[in-house]
Amino acid sequence: MAEQALDNEVTSLMTAIGRLTRRVRAAVSSRDLSWTQTAVMARLDKEGPATASDLARAEGMKPQSMGSVVASLEELGLIARRPHPTDGRRTIVELTKKGAGLRKIASDEKRTWLAQAVAQLDARDRKTLFAANEIIRRLLETDRAEE
Fold it and tell me: What's the pLDDT tens digit per position in 17-43?
């Protein structure tokens, strides 16, 4: 494949993945949350409690900006702060039951939307899509090995 054609296909793939991601995200009831709020909740859900500084570093944000995000999520009752066990100057941020419940609902809604969309494909297209999934996973594993 010529370099220009490959570049065009890669750009098209990136666009399609981005649009699919946005469409799946639009299917959730937590759409009132910002992208950053959603990302922070996802990180806490997957990795467990963390300090606001750790969250800021992980999300590539300034600590002051993360402080605003944490405060807004706390005000909504989706996260809670508790004292750090060894450093009295810091606090630990964690999901509340309400926050974890919202994450579960959002995950279920995303999965339901995507399952319904995939179910509309014919068997050949579903097989192709799932084969592409395996290829994408391999690409991600290769990327992770280089870190």
Answer: 999 988 888 887 656 788 899 899 999
Question: What is the rounded distance in angstroms from the CA atom of residue 143 to the CA atom of residue 146?
Answer: 5
- Give the pTM: 0.72
Tell me whether residue 106 is in a domain: yes
User: For residue 52, is it within any domain?
Assistant: yes
- How open is the CA angle 140-16-35, to the nearest 5 degrees? 75
Query: Residue 74, SS3?
Result: helix
Q: List the domain range (segments joined by +) for residue 108.
A: 26-118
CATH number at residue 99: 1.10.10.10
Distance CA 52, CA 69 (A): 9
Let me know if 4 is exposed, middle or buried by CB neighbors in 10 A (0-12, 13-18, 19+). exposed
